[in-house]
Amino acid sequence: MQNSEDPRQLSRRSFLKKGALGGTVAAASTLAAPAVLAQSPIVVKMQTSWPASDIWQEFAADYATRVQEMSGGRLTIDLLPAGAVVGAFQVMDAVNDGVLDAAHSVSAYWYGKNKAASLFGTGPVFGASSPAMLAWFYQGGGDELYRELTQDVMGLNIYGFLGFPMFAQPFGWFKNPVNGVADIQGFKYRTVGLAADLFQSMGMSVAQLPGGEIVPAMERGVIDAFEFNNPTSDSRFGAPDVAKNYYLSSYHQASEQFEFLFNKDFFDDLAPDLQAILKYGVEASATANTSKAMRVYSEDLQKLQNEAGVSVLRTPKEILDAQIKAWSDILPTLETDPMFKKIVDSQRVWAEQVAFYELMNAPDYALAYEHFFPGKLKL
User: Fold this and answer.
1) Gyration radius from the chain CA atoms
2) Burial annotation 48-60 (CB, 10 A radius, 16+ → b, else e)
3) Do residues 267 and 275 lie in contact, with contact meaning Cβ atoms separated by under 8 Å?
4) What are the φ/ψ torsions at residue 26 (nearest 5 degrees)?
C-alpha cells in the first residue's frame, strides 16, 4: 500500500489540490509559474486489462474522452493496454500500491484475493439481468458492500465503481457440438471468477487466463474449450480460427459489469468537481458502451455465422439446468465466509423483488421477432 508519508506523494498531492483549486503557492518573484501550473491538466495514469486490439480498450477510451471533455481539459487520462505496466490480472495491486492511478477491469480478475470479489460481476444468477444487478450496486446497497469488502475487510487503498452492464456471456467455443452435461465432462475450459467454481463442480477442469492468452492455449492443447465474453472480442483474438461451435446464453456470467478502480489517495486529493467527473463519467460511459456493444456485437455475430463458418447455437437446456443446480450446490460452502454471505443475501433479496418486476413486465420479444423475421431464431 502507498506510504502516505512518501514526500514525492505529498508533493504531488499538494500540487493536485492547489492546482485544481487554482491556489497560488509561489513567491512573488515567480508569480508566472503558478498560473501555468494551475492550467496544466492532471494526468490520470490508467491501465486496462485488455489488449490494445480489443473493443473493450475502445470502451475504456470512450470513458477517457468523456472525462476529458466534461473536465474542460483539466483531467486527461493516459490510457494504457494490458501489460503496459502490469499484467491483466495485476491491476488491482498496481492501483492499490499507487503504481497506477486507475484501472479499467473486472472484479473477477482479483477473485484470487477474495472470492467475494466475483460477486460484483460474475456471481450466482437469481433471475435478474445485468442492468438489474448494476442497479443493485447503485440503488440496492451494493456500493457500500463493495467499499466494506475492499476497504474494511481487505484493507485496500482503492475506490471502485461499476460501469457497462454486459450482456449475458456465451457458454463459449467448442471444437465439437455439445448436447448435454456428459459431453463436457473432463473438458479443460477457460473462464474466470466464481464461474471456475461452478464449472469445476460440473466436472470440468478450469484454467483462468487473460483474454490474450486464450487462443495460444487452445492451439497448444492446454484447454479444450473456452469463453471470454462477446462476439467482437472473441472474433478479434482469433476464436473462430480454433473452434467453430459457438454457444450463446449461459448462467455462468450473466450479469457482469466493468470495474473502474482508483487509488484512494489520488482520488481524495482531487477537487470535488473532478472527483464527481471521474465517478459519474462511469455512468456516462455505461450508456455509450451499451449502445456501441449492441451495434458492433450484433454485426460481428452475423459475420461469424455468415462469413467465418461458425455454427451459432444456444446452450442446450440440459446444461443450463445443470448450471442453475450447480449454483445452488456450491453456494452453501461459499457462504461460510460471512462477508460473502452478506453480499449474496443482499443480491438475493434485490433479485427477488426486481427480477419479479422485470420478468412479469417484459413481453415475449422472441414471439415478435419470429413474427417479423420468421425462421431465423433457433430456440
Assistant:
1) 22
2) bbbbeebbbbebb
3) yes
4) -80, 160
Domains of the chain: residue spans and CATH: 7-165+255-295 (3.40.190.170)
Taken in order 61, 262, 194, 51, the sign of the CA dihedral is: positive
Question: Per residue in 264-294, pLDDT tens?
Answer: 999 999 999 999 999 999 999 999 999 999 9
In the block, residue with C-alpha cell 452492464: 165
Whether 116 contacts 340, CB under 8 Å: yes
Cell of 101: 492511478
pTM for the model = 0.88
Query: What DSSP letter does each residue of 346-361 carry, written as one string?
Result: HHHHHHHHHHHHHHHH
Cβ atoms of 355 and 132 within 8 Å: the answer is yes
pLDDT digits (tens, 9 = 90+) for 168-223: 999 999 999 999 999 999 999 999 899 999 999 999 999 988 888 898 999 999 99
pLDDT of residue 209: 86
Q: How far apart are CA 162 and CA 131, in angstroms?
A: 11
pLDDT tier, 38 (very low <50, low <70, confident <90, very high otherwise): low
Please list the residues that pair with 103 across neighbouring strands. 47, 261
pLDDT in tens, 340-367: 999 999 999 999 999 999 999 999 999 9
CA distance 248 to 254: 11
DSSP string, 72-128: TTSEEEEEE-TTSSS-GGGHHHHHHHTS-SEEEE-GGGGTTT-GGGGGTTS----S-
Task: Tell whether the model's pLDDT for residue 145 goes beyond 90.
Answer: yes
Neighbouring CB atoms inside 10 A of 152's CB total 10
Average pLDDT of the chain, as a whole number: 90
Instruction: Number of helices (H) and strands (E) in the chain: give both, helices first.
Output: 15, 11
3-state secondary structure of 182: helix
Rounded distance between C-alpha atoms, residue 119 and residue 263, angstroms: 21
**At 225, which amino acid appears?**
A
Contact 159, 264 (CB under 8 A): yes
- Among all chains, which residue has been given the C-alpha cell 470513458? 63
Q: What is the DSSP letter of 153?
A: I
